[in-house]
Design a protein that fits this description.
Two copies of one chain form a homodimer. By secondary structure, the first copy, chain A, is mainly α. The first copy, chain A, has a domain at 171-216 and 285-501: Neurolysin, domain 3 (Orthogonal Bundle), CATH 1.10.1370. In chain A, 63% of the residues lie in helices and 3% in strands. Chain A contains 20 helices and three strands. A three-stranded mixed sheet of chain A has the order 1-3-2. In chain A, helix 6 (126-147) crosses helix 7 (156-164) and helix 16 (420-439) packs across helix 20. The A-B interface holds A 13-14, 17-18, 20-21, 24-25, 28, 32-37, 39-41, 43-44, 46-48, 50-51, 55, 226-230, 242-246, 283-284 and B 13-14, 17-18, 20-21, 24-25, 28, 32-37, 39-41, 43-44, 46-48, 50-51, 55, 226-230, 242-246, 283-284.
């Protein structure tokens, strides 16, 4: 009865294998590959992408989808099988609109672009990066053109956003961001005009080897297990599954700013737990590969900020940081650490931004990307536009493009349309955090004791195990009985910053 | 004029990309992968192998071969293009005889088998390994059946050997091995009955970190360059290109037997130089992937034994080993090191065997493999057969299968027919070594000064740059005006052991 469905699953399993081969090649490029491997690696990634695209978009996939749907007539519409067929069909229809050589070129340009970006960023030279950005914008436009007029896309940016947050539309994001900005700006004003907090603890010089040990200890509390995980060094931190049950996370170390490695590791471990949970619940299946980056980011940000920078977990972090750092952090008080790591201060680098100003970094990118894609902003003017917008939103003058437009890997890798999912992830994290506290009344006591398993299992149950089975809106409706919303995140943030700054917000 | 030839080259370039993706996945499995990644990695490797097989054996490849041959009519028969078409056609015809699912299953079984082997070897438990060996023997037989009656194969083993040493036949190897055994046995008798050598220097306890530094220094003298190479730890050392200009070599360390890591590193670096030279001369081409493992092994053994264990290079090694080891090797004399690392003594482990007894380890495997494939030896009896044959040839009683049949990774990975190329490599190394001395009169002085570039460039010119362009017999004829032969290796060995043991051999 399910012969063609099984065949579809096998076909998808092979595509999952190819995706893992690409993920591994990309992980290796960023962590282990000697520099002379770069040119050839770009070809390898392009060929894998092209083959995967060709295999997936083959008309045989369509025939199997039709036949499998027939076999599933009358089946539970919420079963894994029915959802698999629906999800594959939607992706298949989108992918078929893109020629194979464009797919290969996007992969190749992304791999080569990252190599150029590393040098351009090191030399803070936008001119060096400009041809890469131009090429990637051109490719993104060609990609958009394949899809306009389909799937109810209302604008060019909808096409790109849909790749990172399926079924989400630009207008909805813009509305959420408007509301978020209205809430955040007065909050930022209030705290930056207050007495401020003592940042001494985060300014302590902390040797890299000690940071490495601290990061490792903390991710192990979260669920990192050397039998299935690796933690490596990289320029731009990331998390990726390179196999079902094989999770790779990376972080970077700065002796003069130790919270970066610690919270970066927690962030990536949050992603990793999601990758692991989804893949093990749906092995070698497209449902095991999370396709909502907003959901993905909700996991990383929840662990990084709500747990990691939370009042309770400071009781775990403070003594461990003191022990691994030695002198400068001796006798560090949890309360002092809690306040220091939650200082709100406009700053240049997105990944180091506090939780209140973070969204401003995202909104800037969200707007610039739309303008680049629509052609209302020329690539040659992008660095200047960045500086102007940054001054307007964050209030700082970018004097060095390495701290401005060159700070993120995304545009070098051809990832246009991706950034907004970071801020959407914060919103969802706020919603999950509120519900987790309702379901787990002793949660804060557990966090203060370093017992993170309860929260992890709650997330496994309500988020991870679903993998890519439900679109975000439906997942939130099923698990939280609510659409994506701004209020819980803002409540969380006011509560925390009120505590940090001794203000009533 | 060359449209179809170019298309053939592009097709082959994509296959080269897929091969590199597999090489990377295999490298990662043996050096970086957490253990829980193993099951999924086997699927990834199987899918890559299956896709590569399908792409390669597609009838479109045949059409392009025909058309390219037409375009090349009248071209220089020794040109890269003509040789490319000839070589691809031969491999294409062989590969087309193998069903895709068998190819995938061989890859999957090889990947899974290695994981079982690691445990079985650690526990010295042949029973644990037996099902893996049985499955791999069964697969090898199915593979053989695809090919019998083609390409002039005279016996089952010819089919397997041809995969590792193209166009070489079992009967020719057997004749060479008979001659080699006749020469070696009296030589071994003579030296093992002599006064012996002082092995103290190789028995010194040498901390792993010092060995690591020594290995790194020595491979850098050979041409290892961090811009294009990596050296990592592994259970079973190997070398692999994972991209044109991206070479990965591995070694293992034993505090109680330091020559293993040093000479292992030199061995793998010898392979790596060949991989690098061939790939850079023929980027993204099948001609850049050396398909003669005897030629490959000639490079590794030449660097490991003729250079590394040679009288001249001992002048370089002795002071460096003393410096990195500290106390136990203080004041180590080059002459003492030279004698110690060339001690002839029957031993259990092939990769630690001296140059005189090494071939006996190979001949044993060469015979057992033939018997397993022909079915005259049952897999269940293989460990016992190993012990009996080992007693007969080497004169030692294997009491522990970890030191017997479980010592090598090959059979776990499905690599049947491979071993003889190791001993053939020694013979070719002997021929190259003799010719290099004729062409480079100051070679020994250079080696004594640690200047290895002259020899490396000589090998680049006479061996590496050809890649897979010529079959071994033709390459040797072109470069040495001789067929593969036993005499130069034996001359080299008598000369060296006469020096070590103070005998006239």
């Amino acid at each position: 009865m399910s012969g063609r469905l099984d065949e579809l699953k096998r076909r998808m399993a092979r595509l999952s294998d190819l995706k893992y081969a690409s993920s591994l090649a990309n992980w290796d490029q960023q962590t282990k590959m000697p520099p002379r491997g770069a040119a050839c690696r770009a070809d390898v990634l392009a060929t894998l992408a092209e083959l995967r695209h060709r295999e997936f978009t083959d008309s045989e996939t369509g025939r199997l989808l039709d036949a499998a749907a027939g076999e599933l007539r009358g089946a539970d519409p919420d079963s894994d099988e029915v959802r698999l067929v629906e999800s594959v069909r939607r992706h298949w229809e989108k992918a078929r609109r893109v020629p194979g050589d464009l797919t290969a070129e996007i992969a190749r340009a992304g791999s080569r672009g990252q190599e150029v970006w590393i040098d351009a960023r090191a030399q803070s030279d936008f001119a060096m990066f400009q041809p890469v950005l131009q090429h990637n914008v051109d490719l993104a436009r060609r990609y958009v053109e394949c899809h306009l007029g389909h799937d109810g896309f209302q604008c060019a940016y909808d096409v790109l956003l849909d790749d990172y947050e399926p079924l989400m539309r630009t207008a909805q994001v813009a509305a959420l961001f408007d509301e978020l900005k209205r809430e955040l700006l007065p909050l930022i004003d209030a705290v930056t005009n207050s007495a401020g907090v003592d940042a001494t603890p985060v300014e302590a010089r902390f040797p890299v080897e000690g940071q490495r040990a601290l990061s490792r200890e903390v991710v192990e509390l979260m669920g990192f297990d050397a039998r299935g995980w690796r933690l490596d060094d990289t320029v731009h931190p990331f998390a990726t599954g390179v196999g079902d049950g094989d999770v790779r996370i990376t972080t970077r170390y700065d002796e003069r700013y130790w919270p970066m490695s610690l919270f970066g590791s927690m962030h990536e471990c949050g992603h990793g737990l999601y990758e692991e949970g989804a893949a093990l619940a749906h092995p070698r299946s497209p449902l095991g590969a999370v396709d909502s980056l907003a959901m993905h980011e909700s996991q990383s940000r929840l662990w990084e900020n709500m747990v990691g920078r939370g009042r309770s977990f400071a009781n775990v972090l403070a003594p461990r940081a003191a022990a691994h750092c030695g002198g400068p952090l001796e006798g560090l008080e949890p309360e002092a650490l809690f306040r220091a790591v939650n200082r709100v201060r406009p700053s240049f680098i997105r990944v180091e931004a506090d939780e209140a100003t973070y969204a401003l970094h995202i909104i800037l990118r969200f707007e610039l990307e739309q303008e680049l894609i629509e052609g209302t902003l020329r690539v040659a003017d992008a660095a200047e536009a960045w500086r102007a917008r940054f001054r307007q939103y964050v209030g700082l003058d970018v004097t060095d493009d390495a701290d401005g437009i060159l700070q993120d890997v995304h545009w070098s890798a051809g990832l246009m349309g991706y950034f907004s999912t970071y801020a959407l992830g914060n919103l969802i994290a706020g919603q999950l955090w509120e519900r987790a506290h309702r379901d787990l009344p002793d949660l804060e006591d557990a966090l203060a004791a370093g017992e993170l398993g309860g929260l992890r299992e709650w997330l496994r149950e309500h988020v991870h195990r679903h993998g890519a089975k439900f679109p975000t809106a439906e997942l939130l409706q099923r698990e939280l009985q609510a659409p994506i919303s701004v209020a819980p995140f803002v409540r969380y943030l006011k509560d925390k910053l009120g505590d940090v700054y001794g203000l009533s917000l």
